[in-house]
Amino acid sequence: MPTSPAPATPSSPTSLAQRGNLYQVAVHQFEKAARAIRLDPAVYQILSQPKNELIVNFPVRLDSGEFRLFKGYRVQHNNILGPYKGGIRYHEEANLDEMKALATWMTYKSALHDLPFGGAKGGIKFNPREHSKAELERITRRFTHALGSNIGPEWDIPAPDVNTNAQIMVWMMDTYMNIVGMQEKMSVRRIVTGKSITSGGSHGRETATGRGIVHCITEWAREKHFNLDGCTFTVQGFGNVGSHTARILSKLGATLVAVGDYRGYVANPEGLNPFKLGEHAQQTGSVVDYKGGKSISREEFFGLDCDIFVPAALELEVGVPEAKALKCKLMVEGANGPTYPEAEEILLDRGVDVMPDIFANSGGVIVSYYEWLQNKRSERWDLEEVESRLERRMKRSFGLIRDTAAERGLDWRTAAYAIGLERIQKCYLERGIFP
Ligand code: NAD
Predict the structure, then answer these.
(1) Could you give the residue numbers annotated as active site?
(2) Residue 7 and residue 319: Cα distance in Å, rounded?
């Protein structure tokens, strides 16, 4: 089992290089679920490695006139249920094993919800904060060009992830449209999801992951007869996922008592206003120095009293020390792979409920599917329609995971995997393995 490293120093969040291997975590979870459902040995072998692992090195002209070579990735894990689907991340520590893990989780996320997609993930190894907007545009366009026909609207459909957003997706779409030629141009807008509304995006996509997390929390609260009005929560990461979760949850009467990002942590037992905090983060690039709270260390953050904790930053942030320190009743994985397996065991032993990432943060891919469908049918759905479909799908899968966990005596993560794996297995056994 991959083990967690020593705790990070308070002011310097752990570097990915110091963390365990993310792909080993994904493999550990997969193997546990495969054993639980006695997965067919041939299907087990097929799923144990991604189908395709692509690395591209491409040059980009910087504003200074110099060239720099960038390294990009696209890993395609499985496509038995439909086109590959998954985000694009810009991060200085992006690496192949991380992409393999993230692509694997996308396969099970889509399969869990019965979405007609497979799993993929990609990105570029660089720090976007060190580049101008013009450089980011050239890097994005050249990366899209380098991926070429390895992506496609019926083959592999990227979306936003860490440090990418609607603008990046629109540049990717525009570049791809200009590669395919005039006649096909208009039919390929669905090459990416998470676009701006102006350029073919869907209402409700930007907030979808946060909204999905909150559905997960409200369903849990209903089951447990737990009153969200007046409860407290903490969020690690205040980007797309963390900030929207905090805003939506606070509207239900829950109080955000602490938050952190790559620069540090702030807390206020009386409550932080996530809307004002969002404005501050927008202006300054971070939640630190927010006037409505006081600065705390990473250690203090993990030891705070709260009812719900949402990790929504990067992977492998919750190791053994954090699992021992956490005082929440529920941890909802907004981030992908935030928890070491041994830390999860500690949390479960301590009676903390853990909502696994492949369920909890799937609102994004669900609404990405709706965006893709709208583009394909040349339709535009209103916000109400998108959000009610998202709510139905999250609630349906919640019920399925709850029942599977109870009937088979599984933890929630293994139950979620079991549902996805059995859908994939059924498909392989019916279709057979070519030739
Ligand atoms: P983002 O780039 O918008 O935000 C990331 C946040 O994490 C930022 O506030 C950043 O400062 C913070 N952060 C980075 N490193 C940190 C560290 N070492 N310690 C504390 N905070 C740190 O990214 P996002 O889109 O919100 O994604 C966050 C997580 O959610 C990722 O794991 C991503 O894969 C996952 N996810 C995103 C989506 C989506 O729709 N965007 C969907 C599903 C899952």
Answers:
(1) 121
(2) 8
